[in-house]
Specification:
alpha/beta, Nitrilase/N-carbamoyl-D-aminoacid amidohydrolase, six-stranded mixed β-sheet, 6 helices, about 25% helix, about 25% strand
């Protein structure tokens, strides 16, 4: 990769609700604003298409691309940009529960990659609970693809707590990992920044982590705090906890190469000891 090349990346932090069409239109509007400000890659958060009653997930799910993705695909082609459609409810033809699926859209307006969330989040906080395993089907495949001249890995939210997934992506040579999320406020306050920066540092890659704000599943507030982090663990951009925001940063691919050269940690691993 050219030492001086930079990529302008933006995150659209949202506060999605139960009106699917409104959420989709709002996502389109935010991507338009971000690309109008010069971003060539824009990332949306987890379940940007719908956050509401989990018992109707199956009824609002669609086969890919569906109504949630088609407007974004058209916009990507119109503006010649990459869009990470955080995640949508993908219809599962073999089961009643849908997949929670992250989709990467290329500048031709085509689906470049789709990743189904592997690790499903179950938690009880006080008298409230979230049980994704009761409403989603878990994915099984590790996914990476080319995006804006980089190799990008796709993950979603709770995946961040499973470092073996990110190390597998590092083995594939990723330069960037997406982590679209809807982190709860209690877990986010305790762990979010630590986990995001750790995944960047230990795998020597950029992390683009779009978050949801507002009220999430189970009536539990979400954490916002969307982040863009470089391979040295520096926070390049961060949104506040509350409200919808667009943040952006320049990903310096020369700095990525420099970090890996001065601290070649990925090449220092003693792999036989862990097999």
């Amino acid at each position: 990769m050219p030492a001086s090349r930079q990529v302008t990346v933006a995150i659209a932090q949202m506060a999605s609700g139960p009106d699917k069409q409104q959420n989709i239109q709002h996502a389109v509007d935010l991507v338009k604003k971000a690309t109008g400000n010069g971003a060539t890659l824009v990332a949306l958060p987890e379940t940007f298409d719908y956050r509401g009653n989990p018992s109707i997930h199956s009824s609002i799910a669609e086969p890919l691309p569906g109504t949630a993705l088609e407007p974004l695909m058209g916009l990507a082609a119109e503006r010649g940009v990459w869009i990470l459609a955080g995640s949508v409810h993908e219809q599962n033809p073999d089961a009643s529960m849908p997949y929670n699926t992250s989709v990467l859209i290329d500048p031709r307006g085509e689906i470049a990659a789709a990743y189904r969330k592997m690790h499903l989040f179950d938690i009880t906080i006080g008298d409230r609970s979230v049980a994704e395993s009761s409403h989603y089907t878990a994915g099984t495949d590790v996914v990476c693809a080319e995006a804006a001249g980089m190799k990008a890995g796709l993950t979603i939210c709770y995946d961040i707590r499973f470092p073996e997934l990110y190390r597998r992506l590092a083995d594939f040579g990723v330069d960037l990992v997406f982590i679209p999320s809807s982190f709860t406020a209690p877990t986010g306050e305790a762990h979010w920044e630590i986990l995001v920066r750790a995944r960047a540092i230990e795998n020597q890659c950029f992390i683009v982590a779009p978050g949801q704000a507002g009220m999430g599943a189970g009536g539990i507030a979400t954490y916002g705090n969307s982040m863009i982090v470089d391979p040295w663990g520096r926070v390049l951009a961060r949104a506040p906890q509350e409200g919808e925001h667009i943040i952006s940063a320049e990903l310096d691919l020369g700095e990525l190469a420099a970090v890996r050269k001065r601290l070649p940690a990925l090449h220092s691993r003693k792999l036989p000891a862990f097999r």
